[in-house]
Write a structure and sequence with these properties.
alpha/beta; Rossmann fold; 2 domains; eight-stranded mixed sheet; two-stranded parallel sheet; 10 helices; 10 strands; 41% helix; globular
Amino acid sequence: MLNIPQNQLKQKLKRAFVVLTTIYLMVASALYFFQEKLLFLPTTLEQDYQYQFSYSFEELFLKTDETAIINAIHFKIEKPKGVVLFFHGNAGDLSRWGILAEYFVEKQYDVLVMDYRTYGKSTGKLSEAALYNDAQYCYDYLKTMYIEDEIIVYGRSLGSGLATNIASKKNPKQLILETPYYSVLDVAQYRFPMFPVKQLLKYKLLSYQFIKDVKCPILILHGTKDQVVPYQSAKKLYEASPKLKTTFVTIEGGTHGDLSAFEIYHQYMNKVLK
């Protein structure tokens, strides 16, 4: 057995501590300075890109403030049951999300789906306040054409925080949340438990605070095998919600992107969209 002198052992422990501390600080710094690259995964489109969808649509360029122009698709059909304001997830752009939004068009609804700043053709600087501002603008835009009792607000993953925020301030007919989170802060704490993410994060999207003020019926759908937003985060959101208005649907075996592959998903969607 090696007999290491005390002074050498102290030096080795000191060096190890310095190395570990340096690594910890480097990772914490990366979480702070590169958090937008972790949270937002946009793809961009040329301004002259031509969308191709199965249903008639109008392409919009909404000037939501002096620094931003938001690209959106407004699907319109004859005699719609209402309109769905669709807030998409954190990856891709409207060329993909527009196709997924057609699910609601097939159910005889008009749909408005926007690209967040830096996504697709949308421009402007991202921030949590800017996301709320742009979502509010889109809701108010729809109110010029539809009564609020015709508006369904839908949010998927990242978009669930925006949808919940809007529904807490307005009076839509229904709020639908697919794979939502208690807060982005909650998901970050789950993924990085060793770091003070509350102090590091610029984007918190505190859905649990917003949902308390939602007055319309709420449908939450989440899979038990979701590796992106933990199932327990959605359960916590349900616990914070006004229970008499909220239906929580557990999809056994569902992951983050495949809930529509389960029959139970369509059963509950059909109830809401009837």
